Amino acid sequence: MTQGMGGFGSLKSLQIIGDAEQPLAAPVGQPVAVAPDEGRTEAKVIIVGSGPAGLTAAIYAARANLAPIVLGGYEAGGQLMITSEVENFPGFPEGIQGPELMDRMRAQAARFGALLVDVDVERVDFSARPFRLWAAGVEYTAQSVIVASGASAIWLDIESETRLRGRGVSACATCDGFFFRDRKVIVVGGGDSALEEALFLTNFASEVVMVHRRDQFRGSRIMQGRALAHPKIRVAWNSQVVEVLGDQKVTGVRLRDTVTGDERDEPADGVFVAIGHRPNTGVFRDWLEVDPKGYLTVHGETATRVDGVFVAGDVRDHRYRQAVTAAGDGCRAAIDAERWLAEHELAERATASAW
Ligand SMILES: Cc1cc2nc3c(=O)[nH]c(=O)nc-3n(C[C@H](O)[C@H](O)[C@H](O)COP(=O)(O)OP(=O)(O)OC[C@H]3O[C@@H](n4cnc5c(N)ncnc54)[C@H](O)[C@@H]3O)c2cc1C
Fold first, then answer.
1. What number does the ligand 1 atom closest to the CA of 166 have?
2. What is the model's pTM?
3. Among 69, 149, 250, 320, which is best to mutate for testing ligand 1, by the most ligand atoms less than 8 A from CB?
């Protein structure tokens, strides 16, 4: 997707210009405050990503008078935009739809003066300050940057899986396992994450069938031992999912034997795809360190090896991968960025009450 030079009139998705005077009045799910873009391209802090980490960082940075720019990406709102019910985010006892939760976070960030622009950052130059970032043909500059570009679940990439996402197909047992109490579920994958997901799902499901392409797991011996010994877990070796069955909701999977090519149907109520996540680090790789799994490495709390560049959320976290931990991380990165700016006399010191 390309954008016109200089302005943002042609942006695909919602832009929000923050206005600290404006109350949070727009109905949830609607644009909050859409105004012609003022073309601001310089900021004390630029936040890359508009998932829970990026938007929480934006709320904190905006309330510290830093008037952040959020370059939120074409997948504005992040991973929760593709989920339905979120039941574990504190403060919503009845649960909340993922897109609605993200709309609320956007509204909150805009209310305090964050400028939200839904474009992907294509290139950065962190060699000197101000840091430079390019997105949709526009150059942005910032004294500090918070990278909150998240991670994407790797899917099987078959049509039926995409169609039934949120209707029995999931990539997160911690998030959705609870919905499968006394149901039979499939877990696709053979690494440590798949084994962990399968074991977690035994807390709810009546039966967990692990589908793996090979005749042995890749995961650690300890995890393998626990999974193979569990009375609720069964393994379909040498099998791959060629179709997720079901019209409005999952009813099973069609499996192909990777040795014989034979196909058979396995009935189930849910399918958990656990074949990995891909952190969105491409544009930062020349500047920031990544760990062996490709996640950004932090030095201390949220700092990176580039002074003034901070990270938050799933782009650095392959362990917890939750909205609430990403949001917490966004808060920490914003506080660290504000303190760093103040120490370098690049920002007015926020008052304690701003946090
Ligand atoms: C199907 C599903 C259901 C889930 N359910 C739950 C749940 O019930 N409860 C829960 O706590 N967690 C849930 N999660 C996990 C949760 O969504 C993530 O942990 C959380 O969204 C991570 O937040 P984040 O801000 O770090 O990253 P993300 O949400 O991944 O957001 C990343 C952001 O970065 C942007 N971006 C990426 N690259 C660029 C770039 N080059 N330039 C600019 N922007 C960029 C994207 O557009 C996006 O806005 C679920 C995840 C999935 C996939």
1. 1
2. 0.82
3. 149
